[in-house]
Design the sequence.
């Protein structure tokens, strides 16, 4: 009986712990995935055109990717740029990664997570 | 919400720009003005790069970057295309089995004529490129055609370009609606976005020459064919104009056409015509 009454409290504590720890671990791995995808030549290949901290031999066509969280506080805006920037700017060089299925929504989301750390 | 407003504003302005662009074009559509097109094309590059000498555009990325140009000039002492040039000269002077030679197929024995290709053939009603003319010469003399993307063809055009170095590109558009249509078709191909990466030829070579993609410097479209064929270190070998077009298509994840497909012939016609007045510099060497 005592053991039984203890259980809910333990469960609550565990749930609280999980509530704090799990998302940040998930976020960590999304950022790492995002970085890998951003640097992968067959995927985001962002370095071809953008300077990114931690990447070698960047191109010069696009703007340097930094301070993106202050430039785009709404992550949906970053997502939209990666998904299909031709919607905002028909002249852009940026490939429509989402529309042309170079990246999945999940992959774009991970890249957004990574970009927001820059 | 903010993003949505931006998107809305963006598409509104895009629609306005599209409208502004299309309305005068509709008026001009019945008459293609190739002379005005070529002038506008050249002026775009001359104004964008006021410090680049006009005849230097034919040197591609080297015209855009002083360091790269110095390295290239040193390399030109022992150019990597030299073996192709020697092979081409040898091939050019070796008779076919029937005793004739390439010289028999071309004006002036094929020497110093690169600047006149491609030309519009009024009998066929199509554009004839130098590579196509070379293979037709072979076939007319009972020889199997060469691959359009391999070394033999590049060696032949390397030699023919070399004997024409310094001559000014001189492409004619005869007074024939089919010739003008070929020019217009080539222009359309050049500016149309395609492939998974959604690039047109112009995205890289008009919008972004001089910019780097990774370590590579993008060449200006103006005079880009004057340097063909090229030795590319990236390819560890020679490349024909056909190979260049096909590679560009696959790099943008588009489906390449067959070598010497009508669209390729037409885009070569367009690009060569707008480079009229610029010297032949081929064979070239590129990173």
Sequence:
């Amino acid at each position: 009986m005592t053991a039984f009454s203890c259980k809910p409290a333990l469960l609550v504590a565990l749930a609280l712990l999980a509530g704090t720890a799990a998302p940040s671990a998930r976020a960590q791995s999304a950022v790492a995935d995002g970085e890998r995808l951003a640097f992968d030549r067959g995927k985001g290949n962002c370095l071809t055109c953008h300077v990114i901290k931690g990447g070698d031999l960047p191109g010069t066509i696009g703007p340097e990717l930094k301070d993106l969280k202050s430039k785009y506080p709404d992550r949906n805006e970053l997502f939209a740029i990666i998904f299909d920037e031709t919607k905002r700017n028909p002249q852009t060089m940026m490939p429509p990664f989402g529309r042309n299925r170079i990246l999945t929504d999940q992959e774009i989301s991970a890249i957004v997570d990574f970009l927001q750390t820059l | 919400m903010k993003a949505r407003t931006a998107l809305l504003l963006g598409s509104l302005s895009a629609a306005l720009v599209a409208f502004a662009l299309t309305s005068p074009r509709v008026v001009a559509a019945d008459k293609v003005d190739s002379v005005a097109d070529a002038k506008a094309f050249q002026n775009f590059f001359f104004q964008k790069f006021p410090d680049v000498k006009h005849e230097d555009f034919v040197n591609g990325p080297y015209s855009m970057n002083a360091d790269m140009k110095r390295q290239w000039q040193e390399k030109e002492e022992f150019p990597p295309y030299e073996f192709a040039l020697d092979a081409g000269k040898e091939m050019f002077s070796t008779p076919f089995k029937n005793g004739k030679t390439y010289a028999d197929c071309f004006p002036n024995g094929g020497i110093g004529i690169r600047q006149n290709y491609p030309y519009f053939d009024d009998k066929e009603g199509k554009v004839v490129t130098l590579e196509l003319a070379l293979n037709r010469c072979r076939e007319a003399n009972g020889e199997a055609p060469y691959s359009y993307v391999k070394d033999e063809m590049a060696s032949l055009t390397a030699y023919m370009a070399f004997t024409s170095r310094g001559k000014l590109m001189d492409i004619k558009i005869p007074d024939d609606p089919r010739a003008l249509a070929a020019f217009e078709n080539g222009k359309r191909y050049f500016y149309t976005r395609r492939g998974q990466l959604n690039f047109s030829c112009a995205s890289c070579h008009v919008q972004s020459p001089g910019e780097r993609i990774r370590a590579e410097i993008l060449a200006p479209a103006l005079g880009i064919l004057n340097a063909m064929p090229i030795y590319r270190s990236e390819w560890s070998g020679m490349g024909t104009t056909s190979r260049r077009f096909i590679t560009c298509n696959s790099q943008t994840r588009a489906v390449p056409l067959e070598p010497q497909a009508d669209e390729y012939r037409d885009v070569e016609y367009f690009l060569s015509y707008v480079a009229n007045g610029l010297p032949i510099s081929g064979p070239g060497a590129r990173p």
User: Anything to note?
Assistant: Chain B has ten helices and seven strands.
